[in-house]
Structure formats: C-alpha cells, structure tokens
Write a structure and sequence with these properties.
The complex is a heterodimer of chains A (about 550) and B (about 100).
Chain A: E1 6-7, H1 35-98, H2 104-116, E2 122-127, E3 137-140, H3 150-162, E4 167-172, E5 178-184, E6 192-199, E7 217-223, E8 232-235, E9 247-253, E10 256-264, H4 271-330, E11 341-348, E12 359-365, E13 370-378, H5 383-401, H6 406-413, H7 419-422, E14 426-434, E15 439-445, E16 451-454, E17 457-460, E18 465-466, E19 479-483, E20 489-493, H8 505-515, H9 523-534, E21 543-550
Parallel strand pairs in A: 1-11, 15-18
Antiparallel strand pairs in A: 2-3, 2-6, 4-5, 5-6, 7-8, 7-10, 9-10, 11-21, 12-13, 13-14, 14-15, 15-19, 16-17, 16-20, 20-21
Chain B: E1 8-15, E2 18-27, H1 32-44, E3 49-60, H2 62-72, E4 76-80, H3 84-92, E5 100-101
Parallel strand pairs in B: 2-3, 3-4, 4-5
Antiparallel strand pairs in B: 1-2
Helix pairs in contact in B: 1-2
Classes of the chains: A alpha+beta (about 550), B alpha/beta (about 100).
C-alpha cells in the first residue's frame, strides 16, 4: 500500500546554492613566503655561514702557519748573524791575551772590519782591571761605552771576564744608537776584554729588503724577553708593539736573547685565498636566493594548480548539481498510491559525466483497473537527450490516457522520433497491469525484458521486441500479455543496471536474475539488494529500476 | 572515452559509391566513436551507401548498437556477415529486421 520515489545515493550530493566558484581575479595569496621556502632559506644561510666560517678558519690557519714558517726563517737568519759578530771579537780577544805588550795586532785585525762598518763601527780593547776605566786601544770612532757611568763599565767588564762567550751590553742611546758586544778569551786568567759597538738604524727603523726573510711582514727585534720600547733594537715600522696576526720567536744571542716579533703586512697565502671565505659567502648567498626563489616559485605554482583544481571541482559540483536537479525534475516526484500495489523505483546516476542521462521511469494509474508502468532509455546524454526523454514520457502518458494499449503507445511514439534527424533513439518498455484480469501486457521497443518474481522463482517475461523508437521499421509493435497474480512482482530496468564492460548482454542479464534476493519482505529491499549486487564503481551508465508488487490484500 | 579504443579498428574501402567498413574487435562505449567516425569519413570520401563488415566483431554492447544505429543517420547501411554476438544483440534490441543483411 505504499509508494516511493527515490532518487538514490549520489543524486543529492552537492548543494548548488552554497557552491560558488572561486573568483579567479582574487589574488592567489599574500606575498608571504611558504614555510618550506623559509626552511630552505634558513638551511641555505646556515650552510653558507658554516662554509664561510670553515673557509675563514682554513684561511687563518694557513696564514698562521705561513707566518710561523717565515718567523722561524727570520730567526734562523738572526742566529746565522751571530758568528759574524762573535768571530772577530773572539779572535781579537785571543790576540790581545797573547800579545799583551803590543796591541798593534788588535788594531790591524779590527781596522778593516770597522772601516767597512759591518758589523762594527767602533772596536776597542779594555784591560779588565784598568784604572781609570779607559780603553787600552780604540779603532774607529770613540766607543759610547766610554761616556757611560763607571759602574756600568765595571759591571760589563766583570760580566765579560766571568763569561766565556759573547756578552751583550745592550742599547747605547744617543744620536746614533749602538749595540755593545764584549768578548774575553776563554783560556786561563783573563786580562783583556775585546769590545765593539755596532750601529743600529737611526730611529731603530729600517725597512726590510724585499728578498730577505723579512719581506712581506712587519718585524720588531727586542733585546731580552719582553717587548718594551727601551729594549727595541730594530723594527720595520714605528707603530709598536706589532698588532694583529703575529708570531714571536726567541733567538739565543750571546749571553742574552733576541725577541723576534713578526706580523704580516699582506696575505701571505695570496689574495685569492684571502677572498675565498668571501667568495664562499657570496656564492652561498646567491645559491640560497636561487634555491628559495625556485622553491617558492614551485610552491606558488602548486598553490595555483590546487586553487584551479578546487575551482574546477566546485564548478563541476555546481554543474553536476544542476544536472541532477534537472534530471530529478524530469522523473516522477512521487509514485501514485494505488490500492493493492506496492511501487518502488531507484535511479542511480552513472559516473561517466555530469550530463543528464536519458534513463527514465514512470507510473500512471489509467483508471481503477489499469496501471501503466514505463521504463525507457534515450540514447546519448545531455540536455537534448533529457528533452527527448521528457517528450516521450509525456507522449506516452497522453497516449495511455486516451486508452491506447502498450503496443499502440509504442506505435504512436514512432512518429515522434527519428534517429536520422534527431540523432537520438530510445528503448522503451511499456507495461499495463490490469487488476481485474490479473494480467500484465507488455510492449517492447528494443529494451531489456522485465523480470517476474513469484513464488516459484525469478524469470524474464517474454516480450516481442521491436526496434528502438526512432529506428525505422516497417512492422509495428506487438504486445504480449502474461498472468500477473497477487504475491508476484515485476521489475523493469535499464541496461545500466546489468551491463558491464566486456560482458555479453546474456551474461549480464543472467547475473542480474541471480542477484535478485531470494526472499525480501518489501519491494524496496528487493531493489536495494539488486542494485547493491549489480552496481560497481565503474558503472558508467545511468541505472533506473522500477518495481511493482501485487500485495496479497485481505480486503480484495 | 575511458580508454583508448585500441581494441577496435574500423577501416573502409571504396567500391564505387559503396564503402565497405571492416570492423574488427570490440564495439563498446570506448570504441563506438571509431565506427561512426569511419562512416563519416567514408561518406566524406564520396560513399552514399555503407556496408558494415561485422564478421570480426568479437564483442558488442548497447553502446555498440547505438553506434551501428547512428550510422543509419549517416548513410544507408547494410550489414555483412554479422557475428554471433552481433546477431544476439540485434535480436535482444529488436533490431534484427531493422538492418538489411547482405545476402
């Protein structure tokens, strides 16, 4: 006693009123960088910084090593200068001890040395116990030692006598600063001290020779262990102490030490090496910028693609919704309520596209005894197919209401459609149930035959199949009448219900027959069972199914 | 539509004003356009009637029937040696008498 009109799952999806396509003129996004781009930027900068620091460290280490090497070389040069000073004095001291009466030999020995001013500008011979403290013999200019306090002279002479090597007096200040060296013979009791003074550069500043061990660096040489102004012997520049990168080397010199301090004036490893850290930084920064730009570009392109995809999806959903709505409006909104009959229908849109499908079903109560059931399928899809479908549906209703039987109805339809002109044809199954006679009369225009469900099983009802409506035919349609008794059901359907790709029509129909639930209380359960068994994810075609059950009613 | 119709070929040869279209393979929703396109090409080539050689059609569904019916809208159509599957589908869809089969 119930009637149902069901647009099945999928028909209602997408509410057209709420779906608006995104406006393409709206800017894609603000100009903020993506998170991934920021990570790339951060990673790039960190890598660049690390590489730059590493390059800088390598550069510094290299410079330190080179400076250290050069300082050692310079120290070796200083050490090598020691014999040049020590040897003449040692010889003079020996000579003085042996020739204590006549010191002309001392004069002869030292004169050429002093005249060349290398390494001495003044040489003198002192008696250890002389009184007053005056030199025994002088060659060259007067020793500055003479003008020193007597205690200092005495101290030097005693130091020299106690030592058996070169003794350094240190700095003798004045217009031309000098350095004093003393030496005594190492043999027996000492009576004489050979003394000489070497000139220090005026102002103690002397630029190094370009090819010497001091080239390319600033240097300062101090007497003794510390860098103080009054112990400075010579330096290449006036700004002291030397600052920046520097190396220090202590060189034993006589009974004292020379302190050699060096600092590079230029990059010892060359300019290119000095630029290397900078190069690393610049290249790293440029690479980072390039990488970030590329990543950002790709990400924005992806965003744009995502946005377009979303727009398309919404447009599609909109269009789909419009199609579904139109399709819905072309199908019966509800099936008539007919005493003694249970009616149900299902319509499932295919996945093939968003166009309107051509499948339809219809039920019409012609009079108290007769109920018409129609299922049809217009070829093709789209608005045109939908229009043909609506046209046929209402033409059938018109023919039925004037009393045509199913065969007459189909014959009437042939005048309405011609595939040659309309490019569409339609298969139609038209049945009229006569409640008085307990029969169902069926005419078929190229449509799959209906199924009869009754107590003894499920079978296809034989029909006389004519060509689809729209295909030229010389002979008319003929109807076949079957017994239709209370307790039986008839299912009418379109090919989308059973057709699968690659499967013959007979295989599909047989599978459909077997898919009918053996026992179901209600017709709707039968329809849902059939669809659940038949429909696959790749069902590309629309599917419509209409069922009628003659309910065994106690009142009739 | 879904896949490339590489399982169907439809080549025509002209004999006067009749084109014989030899259809080999499966006619379904994916390949139906191949058939109608061949029919249109043959007509454009001067054919006024078509002979569809369907002896090598191995499979056909309702989409395929649709394609064969559509060729009727292009030119007059005659079928040659429809295979078992074709004959069965023509019978199911009531089309057996709608097409002239070559004697």
């Amino acid at each position: 006693m119930s009637s149902e009109s069901v647009i099945s799952a999928g028909a209602e999806e997408g509410d057209g009123s709420t779906l608006q396509p995104a406006d393409p003129s709206v800017p894609l996004q603000n100009r903020k960088l993506h998170g991934v781009s920021l990570i790339v930027l951060f990673a790039g900068l960190v890598s660049t910084a690390v590489l730059g620091l590493a390059a800088q460290t390598a550069y510094k280490r290299n410079e330190d090593r080179l400076l250290e090497q050069q300082t050692k070389q310079a120290a070796a040069v200083l050490t090598a200068a020691l014999p040049g000073i020590q040897t003449p004095l040692a010889a003079a001291a020996e000579l003085a001890e042996q020739e204590s009466d006549d010191q002309s030999a001392f004069r002869r020995l030292m004169t050429p040395i002093v005249e060349s001013e290398q390494p001495f500008v003044s040489a003198s011979l002192w008696s250890v116990d002389s009184d007053p403290l005056m030199p025994v013999e002088v060659v060259g200019g007067e020793p500055k030692l003479v003008s020193q306090p007597p205690e200092m002279i005495q101290s030097l002479l005693e130091r020299a006598a106690a030592s058996n090597g070169l003794v350094l007096l240190g700095l003798l200040e004045g217009d031309n600063p000098r350095m004093g060296y003393a030496y005594t013979s190492s043999a027996g009791s000492v009576r004489y001290v050979a003394y000489a003074e070497g000139a220090l550069p005026s102002g103690r500043v002397s630029p190094p020779r370009a090819d010497s061990a001091f080239a390319g660096v600033d240097h300062a040489i101090y007497l003794g262990p510390s860098e103080t102004g009054d112990t400075l012997l010579t330096a290449s520049i006036e700004e002291l102490p030397l600052s920046g990168r520097r190396a220090v080397e202590s060189v034993p010199f006589g009974d004292s030490n020379l302190l050699l301090v060096m600092s590079p004036t230029t990059e010892l490893g060359g300019h290119l090496l000095a630029l290397f850290p900078l190069l690393v930084g610049v290249v790293g920064a440029l690479s980072t910028i390039a990488a970030v730009t590329l990543v950002e570009l790709l990400l924005r392109r992806r965003d744009r693609a995502d946005m377009l995809a979303e727009q398309n999806r919404q447009l599609y959903a909109n269009q789909l919704s419009v199609s579904r709505t139109l399709q819905h409006s072309l199908l019966p909104q509800e099936l008539p309520d007919i005493p003694g009959l249970e009616l149900a229908a299902r319509y499932v849109p295919g996945v093939a596209g968003l166009d309107i499908g051509g499948d339809w079903y219809d039920v019409m109560d012609i009079d108290d005894q007769r109920v018409m059931l129609v299922v049809g399928d217009v070829s093709g899809r789209g608005l045109e197919a939908g229009t043909v479908m609506a046209q046929l549906r209402y033409a059938i209703r018109a023919f039925a209401s004037r009393g045509d039987d199913p065969a007459d109805i189909l014959n009437g339809l042939t005048r309405l459609l011609d595939v040659v002109h309309d490019h569409h044809f339609a298969t139609v199954l038209c049945a009229i149930v006569n409640l008085d006679q307990q029969t169902i009369t069926i005419a078929n225009a190229g449509h799959p035959a209906p199924m009869l469900l009754h107590s003894s099983g499920v079978s296809f009802l034989a029909t006389e199949v004519g060509p689809p409506i729209g295909v030229a035919t010389s002979c008319g349609y003929n109807a076949v009448t079957h017994e239709f008794s209370p307790g039986s059901s008839v299912l009418m359907f379109t090919d989308g219900v059973f057709e699968r790709r690659g499967e013959t029509v007979d295989t599909g129909l047989e599978r459909l027959r077997e898919s009918v639930p053996a026992s179901a209380e209600r017709l709707t359960d039968v329809l849902d069972g059939v669809l659940a068994n038949q429909m696959t994810a790749e069902s590309h075609d629309d599917s419509a199914i209409l069922g009628v059950t003659w309910t065994p009613s106690p009142t009739t | 539509m879904d896949t490339e119709p590489d399982d169907l070929t439809a080549d025509y040869t002209l004999h006067g004003d009749t084109a014989v279209i030899r259809i080999v393979g499966e006619i379904d929703i994916a390949s139906r356009d191949t058939v109608t396109n061949a029919a249109r090409a043959a007509v454009a080539d001067g054919a006024s009637s078509l002979v569809l050689d369907m002896s090598e059609v191995t499979f056909m569904d309702s989409s395929g029937i649709g394609a064969v019916i559509t060729t009727q809208a292009i030119a007059s159509v005659m079928l040659r040696k429809p295979s078992e599957v074709v004959q069965r589908l023509l019978a199911v869809t009531g089309l057996t008498n709608s097409f002239t089969v070559e004697p």
